[in-house]
């Protein structure tokens, strides 16, 4: 398929180019970005250093189509502390990577009037909400920087759009599977959906000939294995359809998508004994988690419009897994610990197999509104049911996001004193099950193309929910950005 | 007798007012006919924003317009705004396209009273709807070199209480528009610096909006203007906005 898509795109663009009468020059633009963060604990460690050149290339063939490319050159992270040869291995001294985020051709009125096609690596953004879009699932999430939330990776795809009056019919085909990029470093903890592991295990002799033995459990760092779908045409493709239009003063759309969820799901946990103490009161265990990417059907609906002077929008995603997914736990064999050939032992306290994703449908949705005050201040409020990593009925939490910003001095200074993301996970015990992130910031627009942002992220919470897991990671940051 | 005289004066005043209103309506119509004579237009737009110290910022955009209700404008400079596009459609429907998010979004109606892209023009000022549809004529008077027309907005949500428009005598094209806020204060003045006949149409190719309150001004210069390009409604659609 890959062999087919690229030549097809080149042929189509060539045909368009030969017909084109008004070729615009290649436009080269993009931005330079520098992000640096310090964690607010005792030693004030640097927690993030990223310097990025985002190069965007566009060439329009007036009336016929467009070529787009977006390439990131990213110097990311720090030099490793245990570097052995700093002089010649520049990619270790200054870690560096590049990636083609997008590279595609767009052709207008392809074969028939009002049919547009985009072929190649592209971002297909569905949904009307801000940042959290239950219907935006064609491209996997790029969660590498958890604070740059809402980023998605480009996907190799064929996107056809047919326009008829105020309506658009869209069909998307994704031949390959691309997994989501998970958060860098220990931010992964926010999304760790692995089975909680016990602190102790009780070993009993099956015929109660010996008193039970309570063993303290110590775990080595967990290893993760990701089972990608087999790279076969029968396994990897995803597809989607969307009907969008304008009715009763509102923009409305209905969509359907089938494919692999880009976020992994725990599939198997293997717990093995590394060693035990001589008195058998402590066992040292290794844990290996295997994760898979479940197949899922997603029915989507969204709307956007205005009520009076308020912009309103809503988005609903109904997720239907193709089957029930069960996490298998392979527990350690207590007989290995005791090492007795005469007696048989069994262990209690080790988690058992459990259903991690039921086949029953579940719905995530977002309702949002924004308002611009007469003095230019901006308020955006969203209610979110179900975060991106929450799956299955009964596992979806409610979140509230509030963003308020004020501009001063001819929009040179932007202050966001209230940027809050909050959740209460259990309304019966709210004080023990909540989380919030408070993210005030100040941005100075030095020139039209240069801006510097300084802010902080204060995280707090109790319980086991998202963000409560990372409450010790308060930070301050500085971000500098230059567009060219 | 006194009562009859008063009634006569009242009748005359009412009659004169009606005549003024009639003249004002005629003038407003004539002005619209001149401004909106081309079926459509395409232009490269240069926007110079002056702050109160005279410091300049420059924006550039490609703009096309059809009739009075359809307009599509796409920024080409500065780089930070490149690709941001605005679409105006009938019935006050407006969309913005944000290339960074690959998404179009409806703009709430009240945003129209806000400044457009950091300029001294509001969305309302840039609306391509004929003046006679947006404003009621109130009065008109003739001066040595033109006409002065006073109009009030039909929309209660307008940021203005009235506009005073000075027209050229020879072609009815507006020379200057004064905008008054709800308290009756002069807050903005738009001056057409260069009105020229291109082909068969009179048009302004250089105009300035001064904000008297903020002491700032914005100049818009039209380059490469072409008329009657044969645009259709399809050229002013969300599809074209995102292309």
Supply database-style keywords.
heterodimer; A: 484 residues; mainly beta; 19-stranded antiparallel sheet; eight-stranded mixed sheet; 27 strands; 52% strand; B: 243 residues; alpha+beta; outer membrane lipoprotein receptor (LolB), chain A; 13-stranded antiparallel sheet; 4 helices; 19% helix; 47% strand; globular
Topology:
The complex is a heterodimer of chains A (484) and B (243).
Chain A: H1 2-19, E1 27-39, E2 46-61, E3 65-76, H2 90-93, E4 96-107, E5 115-122, E6 155-164, E7 167-174, E8 200-205, E9 213-219, E10 223-227, E11 238-247, E12 250-260, E13 265-276, E14 282-292, E15 295-307, E16 310-321, E17 325-330, H3 334-338, E18 345-348, E19 354-357, E20 362-372, E21 378-385, E22 398-408, E23 413-424, E24 434-438, E25 441-445, E26 450-462, E27 475-483
Chain B: H1 2-35, E1 40-50, E2 56-66, E3 70-77, E4 85-89, E5 93-98, E6 103-106, H2 123-126, H3 131-134, E7 135-142, E8 146-153, E9 160-168, E10 174-181, E11 186-198, E12 201-211, E13 216-227, H4 238-242
Antiparallel strand pairs in B: 1-2, 1-13, 2-3, 3-4, 4-5, 5-6, 7-8, 8-9, 9-10, 10-11, 11-12, 12-13
Total of domains of chain B? 1
The secondary structure category of chain A is mainly beta
Major sheet characteristics of chain A? 19 strands, antiparallel
Q: What's the helical proportion of residues of chain A?
A: under 10%
Q: Characterize the biggest β-sheet of chain B.
A: 13 strands, antiparallel
| CATH topology group of chain B | outer membrane lipoprotein receptor (LolB), chain A
Gross morphology of chain A is globular
**Helix-strand string of chain B:** HEEEEEEHHEEEEEEEH
Low-pLDDT stretches of chain B are 12-20
Q: Structural class per helix/strand content of chain B?
A: alpha+beta
Order of helices and strands of chain A: HEEEHEEEEEEEEEEEEEEHEEEEEEEEEE
Please give the number of β-strands of chain B. Answer: 13
Distance between the termini of chain A: 36 Å
Give the overall average pLDDT of chain A: 87
- Please report the total strand number of chain A as a whole number: 27
Strand content of chain B: over 45%
Tally of individual helices of chain A: 3
> What is the fourth-level CATH superfamily of chain B?
Lipoprotein localisation LolA/LolB/LppX
Radius of gyration of chain A: 26 Å
Biggest interface goes to:
A-B, 35 and 30 residues
């Amino acid at each position: 398929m890959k062999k087919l898509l690229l030549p097809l795109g080149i042929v189509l663009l060539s045909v368009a180019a030969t017909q084109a009468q008004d070729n615009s020059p290649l436009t080269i633009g993009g931005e330079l970005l520098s992000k640096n963060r310090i964690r607010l604990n005792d030693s004030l460690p640097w927690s993030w250093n990223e310097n990025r050149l985002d190069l965007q290339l566009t060439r329009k063939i007036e009336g016929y189509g467009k070529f787009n490319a977006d390439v990131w050159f990213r110097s990311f992270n720090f030099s490793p502390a245990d570097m052995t040869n700093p002089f010649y291995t520049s990619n270790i001294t200054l870690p560096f990577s590049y990636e083609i985020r997008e590279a595609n051709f767009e052709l207008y009125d392809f074969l028939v009037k009002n049919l547009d096609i985009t072929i190649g690596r592209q971002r297909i953004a569905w949904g009307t909400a801000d940042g959290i879009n239950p219907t935006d699932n064609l491209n996997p999430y790029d969660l590498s920087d958890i604070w740059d939330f809402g980023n998605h990776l480009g996907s190799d795809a064929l996107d056809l759009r047919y326009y008829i009056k105020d309506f658009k019919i869209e069909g998307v085909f994704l031949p390959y599977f691309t997994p989501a990029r998970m958060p860098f470093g220990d931010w992964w903890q926010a999304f760790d959906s692995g089975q909680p592991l016990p602190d102790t295990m009780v070993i009993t002799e099956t015929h109660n000939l010996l008193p039970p033995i309570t063993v303290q459990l110590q775990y080595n760092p967990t290893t993760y294995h990701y089972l990608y779908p087999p790279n076969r045409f029968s396994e990897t493709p995803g597809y989607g359809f969307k009907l969008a239009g304008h009715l009763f003063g509102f923009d409305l759309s209905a969509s359907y998508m089938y494919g692999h969820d880009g976020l992994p799901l725990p599939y198997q946990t293997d717990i093995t004994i590394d060693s035990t103490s001589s008195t058998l009161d402590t066992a040292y265990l290794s844990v290996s988690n295997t994760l898979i990417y479940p197949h899922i059907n997603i029915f989507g609906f969204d709307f956007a419009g205005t009520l009076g002077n308020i912009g309103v929008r809503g988005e609903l995603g109904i997720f239907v897994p193709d089957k029930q997914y069960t996490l298998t736990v392979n527990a350690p064999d207590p007989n290995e610990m005791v090492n007795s050939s005469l007696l048989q032992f069994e262990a209690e306290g080790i988690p058992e197999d459990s259903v991690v994703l039921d086949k029953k449908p579940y719905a995530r949705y977002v309702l949002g509104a924004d308002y611009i005050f007469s003095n230019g201040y901006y308020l955006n409020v969203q209610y979110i049911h179900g975060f991106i990593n929450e799956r299955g009925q009964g596992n979806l939490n409610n979140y509230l996001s509030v963003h308020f910003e004020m501009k001063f001095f001819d929009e040179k200074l932007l202050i966001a004193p209230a940027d809050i993301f909050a959740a209460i996970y259990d309304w019966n015990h709210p004080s023990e099950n909540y989380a919030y992130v408070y993210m005030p910031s100040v941005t100075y627009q030095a020139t039209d193309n240069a801006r510097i942002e300084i802010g902080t992220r204060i995280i707090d919470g109790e319980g086991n929910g998202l963000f409560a897991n990372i409450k010790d990671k308060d930070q301050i940051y500085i971000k500098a950005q230059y567009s060219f | 007798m006194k009562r009859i005289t008063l009634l006569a004066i009242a009748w005359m005043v009412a009659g004169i007012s009606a005549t003024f209103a009639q003249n004002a309506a005629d003038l407003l119509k004539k002005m619209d006919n001149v401004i909106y004579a081309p079926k459509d237009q395409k232009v490269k737009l240069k926007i110079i924003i002056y702050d109160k110290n005279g410091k300049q910022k420059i924006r550039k955009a490609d703009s096309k317009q059809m009739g009075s209700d359809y307009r599509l404008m796409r920024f080409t400079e500065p780089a930070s705004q490149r690709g941001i596009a605005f679409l105006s459609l009938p019935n006050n429907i407006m969309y913005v396209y944000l290339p960074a998010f690959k998404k179009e979004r409806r703009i709430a109606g009240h945003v129209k009273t806000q400044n457009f892209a950091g300029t001294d023009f509001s969305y309302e000022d840039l609306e391509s709807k004929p003046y006679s549809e947006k404003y009621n004529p109130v009065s008109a008077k003739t001066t040595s070199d033109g006409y002065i027309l006073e109009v009030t907005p039909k929309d209660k949500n307008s940021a203005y209480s009235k506009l005073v428009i000075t027209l050229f005598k020879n072609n009815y094209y507006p020379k200057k528009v004064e905008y008054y806020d709800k308290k009756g204060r002069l807050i903005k003045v738009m001056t057409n610096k260069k009105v020229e006949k291109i082909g068969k149409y009179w048009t302004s190719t250089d105009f300035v909006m001064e904000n008297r309150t903020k002491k700032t001004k914005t100049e818009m210069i039209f380059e490469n203007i072409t008329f009657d390009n044969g645009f259709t409604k399809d050229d002013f659609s969300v599809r074209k906005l995102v292309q």
